[in-house]
């Protein structure tokens, strides 16, 4: 990874993300029940919980894919609950996906250029006619993509179709594409899912490097508890759509309700008690 990657024309202020009493219902099923937490500027905040706890639903609400039934999501001064995904992205929120969402036939470079789309100022006609202003802008975006690729360790793969790359490398491409949006908040949905041990360590180091280089906020959904405890400043735990714990990793991992959610309410000791 290169140390050359720095913010590009980004507002230096990173706002709080404040989630307040967010409820989501699907045909009578409560997927999220008055969930709330705050992602402090420049922090790594993890959302964890057993399968079906509501983590993905929460991410989809924050990124505008789902509409909350009630509650508030604020990013700085902006209320997000009524905004479509492209408007939320324009505020500086970028995400990766649990299942890789890349264009497999396109090269790594072209996939990363897609992340620059919201920052493109040249109009369709200017780009089509290759006017000087459009050519200059395209050159700036290409240079920035190459900087980010070098930072993430993807320079040798820039010309390769994404579909030919190993799974772990594709996950890094997806993270790099999100970085190409110049986010102030980066949302990572299970970034090490399906990776081997070496790939997990590399991704954890990359996330640390992103935070240290940019100082942006990172919101993380992840099942790898070792990684969560290593990276997160704060952890919110969901279970059956409810928040059952919120705080520093050390306090959360020892919370009795969290232990019950992950391990079950009945221990062998309890079973042996007359």
Structural topology:
Layout (H helix, E strand, L loop, with lengths): L16 E10 L2 E11 L4 E5 L6 H8 L7 E6 L2 E2 L5 H6 L2 E3 L12 H7 L9 H5 L3 H21 L14 H13 L5 E5 L7 H18 L2 E5 L3 H7 L2 E6 L2 E6 L1 H5 L2 H8 L4 H5 L2
Parallel strand pairs: 3-8, 3-9, 6-7, 7-8
Antiparallel strand pairs: 1-2, 1-4, 4-5, 9-10
Describe what you observe in this structure.
This protein has helices at residues 55-62, 85-90, 108-114, 124-128, 132-152, 167-179, 197-214, 225-231, 249-253, 256-263, 268-272; strands spanning 17-26, 29-39, 44-48, 70-75, 78-79, 93-95, 185-189, 217-221, 234-239, 242-247. By secondary structure, it is of the alpha/beta class. It has a 6-stranded mixed beta sheet with strand order 6-7-8-3-9-10, with helices on both faces. Strands 2-1-4-5 form a 4-stranded antiparallel beta sheet, with helices on one face. The protein is globular and about 55 Å long. The protein starts with 16 loop residues before the first strand and ends with a helix. 36% of the residues are buried.
Key terms:
10 strands; disordered C terminus; 4-stranded antiparallel beta sheet; 274 residues; 6-stranded mixed beta sheet; single chain
Determine the mean pLDDT: 86
Topology-level CATH name of the domain at 17-106 and 182-272: Rossmann fold
Mind telling me the CATH class of the domain at 17-106 and 182-272?
Alpha Beta
Amount of beta strand: 15-25%
Using the 3D structure, state the CATH architecture of the domain at 17-106 and 182-272: 3-Layer(aba) Sandwich
